[in-house]
Amino acid sequence: MAIKIRLARGGSKKRPFYRIVAADSRMPRDGRFVEKLGTYNPLLPKDSEDRVKMNLERVQYWLGEGAQVTDRISRMLEAAGVVPKKERNNPKKGTPGEKAVNRAEEKAAKAADATKADAPAVAEEETAAAE
């Protein structure tokens, strides 16, 4: 059985409230779970103690049993100091797209052509001024 520590949504429409649960990964998001580990109320201010409540002992137990955590829960655990911060790496995110690269190349080519066209005209003016 693959256990995941994840959020199960509760609350009413436009007023979310989440339970932090250990659940079988094959079960529905809000469905059956093995154990309730805490709560998360996103409507409270970020500095409020009641925003995230977790039973850290049970979370560490499930992590020891091989449970996987979702991205949102891993961020909460990082903030609580339970797990070290996971390095995120997306090397393609900072690189420009294909269209942007083509536009930059065209702009550079036009600038090079413009400087080549200006260079002979400037040289002719200098020779005329010298005479």
Task: Tell me what you see in this structure.
By secondary structure, the chain is an alpha+beta fold. The protein folds into two domains: 3-80, S16 Ribosomal Protein, Chain: A (2-Layer Sandwich), CATH 3.30.1320; 93-131. The protein is 40% helix and 24% strand. It contains three helices and five strands. The chain has helices spanning 56-64, 71-80, 98-130, and strands at 3-12, 15-24, 35-40, 52-54, 68-69. The N and C termini lie far apart (92 Å).
Spans of at least 5 consecutive residues with low confidence? none
Q: Can you identify the CATH class of the largest domain?
A: Alpha Beta
Please, what is the oligomeric state? single chain
Average pLDDT, all residues? 86
Total domains, how many? Answer: 2
Proportion of residues in helical segments:
25-40%
Instruction: Identify the strand order in the major beta sheet.
Output: 4-3-2-1-5
What is the element string, with H for helices and E for strands?
Answer: EEEEHEHH
Main sheet record: 5 strands, mixed
Put simply, the count of helices is: 3
Supply the CATH superfamily name of the largest domain: Ribosomal protein S16
Level-2 CATH architecture of the largest domain:
2-Layer Sandwich
- How many beta-strand segments? 5
Strand content: 15-25%
CATH topology of the largest domain: S16 Ribosomal Protein, Chain: A
Helix- and strand-based class? alpha+beta
Broad shape: elongated
The termini sit apart by: 92 Å
Gyration radius over CA:
29 Å
Features:
131 residues; 24% strand; alpha+beta; 2 domains; S16 Ribosomal Protein, Chain: A
